[in-house]
Amino acid sequence: MSASSPDLSSALANARAWPFEEARRLIARLDKIKDGADKTVIFETGYGPSGLPHIGTFGEVARTSMVRHAFEMLTEGKRPTRLICFSDDMDGLRKVPTNVPNQELLHAALERPLTRVPDPFGKFESFAHPNNAMLRAFLDQFGFSYEFMSATDAYTSGRFDETLLRMLEVYDKVMDIILPTLGPERRATYSPFLPVSPTSGKVLQVPMIERDPRGARSSTSIRTAARRLKPP
Questions:
Q1: Which end of the chain has less neighbouring CB within 10 Å, N or C?
Q2: Residue ranges per structural domain of the chain
Q3: Fold entry, domain 1-157
């Protein structure tokens, strides 16, 4: 049955499975964007490589792929799409997984970015690297169509600099949206920026007490932006 057949068109128009419902919401949202008809629609799924990939990882990518497929069916392939599998490998290691060796080695690296935590297997550059590799092999085994992206690569290359500077400029608006969704304890320390301490090497979850968007704009990099944070 071709994509343009009346029977298939009728079936798609009446499909009520949740991927089609989500795809319709996305189409309605995109239709409101001026001059956006020819732009690529990016679907993204996130993954934290603080442990071995598991069935939850599979479900995350599978669900996003289902919505992407429904979107492509409903738009008859007229809009290009991409699926990015983003690895949050700059996140701090919060706890040591029980299913890996060299527990003491990992305990000593708690709260450091995952790509700066030693590999307990002693084979890779960091703890994140074998987990990222296993994730990609896992997804390839099931034939997922995706593009892999590493947070470490994106941040250190400066790819996110412009967006980070923009976030700094609209900081108050961001906080007005996020804070009502958090509990009292997390609200007291929340910041959309998680800097890495130059002394301890740990990811700092601390409130921002001063910011300088203008100074940051004049800097050569977001990493040299003038800002002060409460010490951990």
A1: N
A2: 1-157, 161-232
A3: Rossmann fold (3.40.50)
